[in-house]
Design goal:
147 residues; four-stranded mixed beta sheet; 35% helix; 7 helices; alpha+beta; single chain
Length: 147
């Protein structure tokens, strides 16, 4: 018997990473059914969720089976609010589920960036948290034509 269901685990993660002053916390709730489904798989023991936001990068691993029972249900609180400013949660996904998960989260929760298991988020990929402030894709200047 699991310590938590996928839905309970997602609720616990939301409680861990949000505070009353969190930005776009509603997107986490909107992603609940998708994330509950994903968290019920044991992928997150080796392929963590990665939250890039305010402060340190937060890496969230899942515990499954006997490991979860041995660790118990206690989760230590964070001493900062990682979603208090611009943030992106990187979600590893089984290639089999990648299309539907990506499409669903793109509309419900654009701050959740989906990638294939094992590929991991990179420092060079553009986060949803910075995409809105990035004008480089929207504005291209041909300086040679200007002279």
């Amino acid at each position: 018997m699991p310590v938590r269901t996928g839905a309970e685990t997602w609720s616990e993660i939301i409680a861990l990473i949000t505070r009353p002053d969190s930005i776009d916390a509603g997107q986490l709730t909107a992603a609940a059914s998708v994330m509950a489904t994903l968290l019920s798989e044991d992928h997150y023991a080796k392929h963590p969720l990665t939250l890039k936001g305010d402060g340190h990068r937060l890496v969230i691993y899942g515990a499954y089976g006997a490991d979860a029972v041995a660790r118990g249900a206690e989760v230590a609180p964070l001493d900062w609010n990682p979603t208090g400013k611009a943030w992106t949660l990187h979600v590893p996904c089984d290639p089999e589920d990648l299309d539907w998960v990506t499409q669903t989260l793109k509309t419900r929760a654009p701050r959740l960036a989906v990638h294939v298991l094992g590929s991991g988020p990179t420092d060079t990929e553009q986060d949803a948290s910075t995409a809105a402030n990035d004008t480089s894709a929207a504005l291209s200047i041909n300086w040679g034509a200007a002279s």
